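Appendix C: a fully annotated inverse folding record. The material below is reproduced so that readers can follow the format used throughout the book. The structure is listed first as tokens, followed by the designed sequence.
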């Protein structure tokens, strides 16, 4: 068996010792990760108070009772927000039906926002399902 010098032995255990030393970079990284918002599934439900299609074909929801305000959903003439024009026309039909009948609609999301913190006048982010019409 080969005999190792003291220096070789310390070198073999270097990684363990590295964790004992204070590292500002590691501390900041851990703090940022700990304070990062968690992504969560949530839904926003309410009545459609305002609905529009702008001259560019964007379907814009002015207000859903749950707090969504003036968000761009999709476009009836080009793919936008990963939604084809055909699907967008279906979304628009669903929203018009809910608005005309006074029913609630529900949108489902998976992001770090809430119903009231989605930015106005921007594409709706984190949206993965809906709208659905809730009767009753």
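Designed amino acids, in order:
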């Amino acid at each position: 068996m080969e005999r190792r010098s003291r220096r070789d032995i310390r070198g073999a255990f270097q990684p363990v010792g590295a964790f004992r030393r204070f590292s500002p970079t590691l501390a900041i990284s851990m703090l940022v990760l700990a304070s990062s918002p968690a992504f969560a599934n949530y839904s926003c439900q309410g009545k459609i108070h305002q609905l529009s299609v702008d001259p560019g074909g964007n379907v814009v929801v002015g207000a859903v009772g749950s707090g969504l305000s003036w968000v761009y959903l999709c476009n009836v003439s080009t793919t936008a927000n990963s939604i084809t024009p055909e699907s967008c026309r279906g979304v628009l039909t669903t929203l018009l039906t809910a608005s005309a009948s006074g029913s609630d609609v529900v949108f489902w999301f998976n992001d770090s926002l809430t119903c009231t913190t989605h930015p106005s006048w921007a594409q709706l982010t984190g949206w993965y399902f809906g709208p659905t019409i809730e009767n009753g």
